[in-house]
């Protein structure tokens, strides 16, 4: 049975952070051989009777500042000690890259049945007040006035130069209440941006309240795949057939109040479920009791989103990339274009009208190794014209795929290109995205 394992522990007044799960378990004297699960209480019991000195797998955060930072950034993760294969530090969080199965097997399971991802590292924020909609629009390119209650929209924070500060999903609970999910890697920047703009609104007597949800108190899990709806329907009373893609509803499971949003990062039908942390493990256990469902980690999540043609912040988009360059012009709502009152509007609207010098495109590789981030994109004559921003094997297609930036006049679909990988060149073609057809659900 799956239980939570805290990768942040308190022992003798100090925070103990495990930077390598396997080494930590081995250091605890064969606990892996005697327990299929290690809980917070059991871990603390074992530490309580022994030494808490620094070792090659335990980091002793001795200073209050380090301890506070550990509290904020190292968090509860949903992991089975008998199945976790690899854990990495991702944006300050210890997260599973994969479980016992390979990334490819986990990826294909998601495409055929359903997988459960722990995405509690993402920033969940409630924004409320009579001016909440205007406030969020002042930072983004979306149209919240015309968004239906219960509906959500993908959008971007932009800077005054039109660059993308982050991509996020905003759900409209009511005219004065919104729910925002943004990237863990941009937690500090997003929080600062939201608070600074809140101060601006206060100065002109605007009413906006911000509630950053503590990830130790509010978890977030993603159930993705063609059987995800059937799995979740067995646990909830609401009719999920009425819940469209990019819509959200609040309901209860075993007395726990949860939010179900029909969205995801895989290109499959699926749901993101915001749930109180105290109830998250019970919900995960119930979901995993259903044979269709397996746990999946960051590795499968990345290969799935790549096949779906979805951007990863800091790789495919950043502060120097505009929505137009990133092939995300559709995120700039019609009304917002007419009003031209969002950050970076001058540059973005100019690019929409006259074009850009670079464009994000899909790339299909032939035989050879995958072209990873930073790999040069060359013309058939060998001239460098761009770079890969994301790339890897496609388990679904059985060949390497990538996305990257190159001049629009050279980015014709079907056009030939070369990739430079480890000093050798390999052939490829420019293609449309997504690489694998999306299967988002529209209500019956």
Q: Which class of secondary structure composition applies to the elements? A: alpha+beta
Overall strand count: 24
Number of helices: 12
CATH topology of the domain at 86-121 and 216-307: Gyrase A, domain 2
Keywords: Aminotransferase, Methyltransferase, Mitochondrion, Transferase, Transit peptide
Domain Aminomethyltransferase C-terminal: 358-437
Protein name: Aminomethyltransferase
Subunit structure: The glycine cleavage system is composed of four proteins: P, T, L and H.
Short description, anyone?
The chain is of the alpha+beta class and 444 residues long. It has helices at 21-27, 31-34, 40-48, 64-73, 103-112, 132-137, 187-203, 228-233, 277-288, 298-307, 334-339, 345-354; strands spanning 4-6, 8-11, 14-18, 58-61, 76-78, 86-90, 93-98, 114-118, 123-128, 152-158, 164-174, 177-182, 209-212, 218-224, 248-253, 256-261, 270-276, 293-295, 359-365, 376-378, 384-394, 399-406, 416-421, 424-431.
Report on this structure:
Residues 1-21 and 23-82 have low confidence and may be disordered. The protein has 12 helices and 24 strands. The strands form 6 sheets. It has a 6-stranded mixed β-sheet with strand order 15-16-17-14-8-18, sandwiched between helices. Strands 19-22-21-20-23-24 form a 6-stranded antiparallel β-barrel. The two termini are 36 Å apart. The protein has helices at 21-27, 31-34, 40-48, 64-73, 103-112, 132-137, 187-203, 228-233, 277-288, 298-307, 334-339, 345-354, and strands spanning 4-6, 8-11, 14-18, 58-61, 76-78, 86-90, 93-98, 114-118, 123-128, 152-158, 164-174, 177-182, 209-212, 218-224, 248-253, 256-261, 270-276, 293-295, 359-365, 376-378, 384-394, 399-406, 416-421, 424-431. Among the domains are: 86-121 and 216-307, 2-Layer Sandwich (Gyrase A, domain 2); 123-213, Alpha-Beta Plaits (2-Layer Sandwich), CATH 3.30.70.1400; 357-434, Beta Barrel (Elongation Factor Tu (Ef-tu), domain 3). The longest helix is centred in the middle third of the chain and has 17 residues, at 187-203. A hairpin with a 2-residue loop joins strand 2 (8-11) and strand 3 (14-18). Helices cover 24% and strands 32% of the residues. The protein is of the alpha+beta class and 444 residues long. InterPro entries: GcvT (IPR006223), GcvT/YgfZ/DmdA (IPR028896), GcvT/YgfZ_C (IPR029043), GcvT_C (IPR013977), GCVT_N (IPR006222), TrmE/GcvT-like (IPR027266). This is Aminomethyltransferase. It comes from Temnothorax longispinosus. GO terms for molecular function: aminomethyltransferase activity; methyltransferase activity; transaminase activity. Keywords: Aminotransferase, Methyltransferase, Mitochondrion, Transferase, Transit peptide.
């Amino acid at each position: 049975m799956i239980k939570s394992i805290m990768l942040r522990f308190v022992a003798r007044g100090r925070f103990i952070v495990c930077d390598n799960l396997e080494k930590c378990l081995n250091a605890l004297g064969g606990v892996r051989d005697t327990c299929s699960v290690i809980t917070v209480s059991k871990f603390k019991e074992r530490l309580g009777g022994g030494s808490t000195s620094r070792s090659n797998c335990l980091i002793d955060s001795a200073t209050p500042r380090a301890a506070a930072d550990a509290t904020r950034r190292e968090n509860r993760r949903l992991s089975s000690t008998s199945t976790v294969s690899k854990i990495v530090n991702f944006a300050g969080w210890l997260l599973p890259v994969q479980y016992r199965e390979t990334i490819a097997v986990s990826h294909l399971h998601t495409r055929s049945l359903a997988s459960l991802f722990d995405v509690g590292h993402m920033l969940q924020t409630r924004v409320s007040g009579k001016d909440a909609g205007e406030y969020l629009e002042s930072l983004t390119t979306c149209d919240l006035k015309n968004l239906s209650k219960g509906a959500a929209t993908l959008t971007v924070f932009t800077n005054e130069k039109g660059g993308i500060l982050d991509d996020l999903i905003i759900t409209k609970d009511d005219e004065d209440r919104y729910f925002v999910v943004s990237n863990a890697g941009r937690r500090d920047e997003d929080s600062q941006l939201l608070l600074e703009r809140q101060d601006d609104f206060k100065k002109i007597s605007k009413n906006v309240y911000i509630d950053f949800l503590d990830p130790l108190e509010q978890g977030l899990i993603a159930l993705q795949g063609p059987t995800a709806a059937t799995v979740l329907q067995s646990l909830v009373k609401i009719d999920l057939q009425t819940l469209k893609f990019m819509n959200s509803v609040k309901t209860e499971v075993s007395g726990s109040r949860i939010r179900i949003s029909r969205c995801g990062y895989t290109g499959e039908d699926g749901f993101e479920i915001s749930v109180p942390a105290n109830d998250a493990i019970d919900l995960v256990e119930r979901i995993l009791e259903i044979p269709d469902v397996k746990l999946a980690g960051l590795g499968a999540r990345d290969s799935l989103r790549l096949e779906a043609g979805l951007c990863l912040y800091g790789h495919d988009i950043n502060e120097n990339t505009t929505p137009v360059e990133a092939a995300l012009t559709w995120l700039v709502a019609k009304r917002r274009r007419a009003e031209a009152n969002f950050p970076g509007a001058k540059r973005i609207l100019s690019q929409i009208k006259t074009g850009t010098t670079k464009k994000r495109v899909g790339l299909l590789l032939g035989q050879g190794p995958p072209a990873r981030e930073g790999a040069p994109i060359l013309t058939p004559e060998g001239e460098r014209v761009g770079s890969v921003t994301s790339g890897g094997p496609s388990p679904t297609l059985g060949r390497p795929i990538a996305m990257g930036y190159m001049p629009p006049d050279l980015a014709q679909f079907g056009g030939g290109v070369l990739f430079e990988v480890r000093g050798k060149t390999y052939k490829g073609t420019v293609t449309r995205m997504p690489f694998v057809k999306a299967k988002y659900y529209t209500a019956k």
